[in-house]
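Worked example

This section walks through a single chain of length 215. The input is the sequence exactly as stored; nothing has been trimmed or padded.
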Amino acid sequence: MRTRSKLLSAALTAACLIAVAAGAAGAGRLSLSEQRFRITWTEFEMSGFTAAVRCDVTLEGSYHYRVLQKTPEALVGYVTGATVRRPCLGGEAWAFNGIERQGTTTLANSLPWHVRYESFSGSLPNITAVGQRLIGARFLVEAEFLGVRLRCNYTTSTTEPGRIPVLREVNTRALTEVQLGGEIRSDTGGCPRGRLARNAAIETPGGAAITVTLI
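Given that input, the structure is written out below as tokens.
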């Protein structure tokens, strides 16, 4: 009798483990509580110059759908608004948004910028970050390099993207912050490669948290 009980217990345990594994393997989509987002940096950083250039930057946009497939390189959303607040530290910067002016020149509009899904971190179902790539983001940076004041254009691309993994709190499922990274070659001759850095807050335009659930 005791042997039969042990066998039954072992069978039930195995069945539970198989069910959990099957559920995790089947969680092929991410469900968002909100489609619209706002990402706010108090120190968006572009380094590579004599001194790193740091500015307040805000990006706004939306995901195409409330449910996203975990498919690498899938186009999942657009950044439709980008604002740089000046003065910056270490230099100056502007976004190519069709509004910001550098001297008497209004910079061209390069929006919308593409948001592509890259990967996730953590183990299913406990995702700790959702990796994304920012493609087409375009900035003008003015700073000193090798004793010369330069104006340099930078554009993120599929080969040199801006990487923006978004951290996720496992218990609340809320997206907590964006980690900016990536290295970009300048469109302007004689300019250094730019390196992106610094974390940012992410929320809805109204200030609410965005949660991500596996389904």
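What to look for: Residues 4-26 have pLDDT under 50 and may be disordered.
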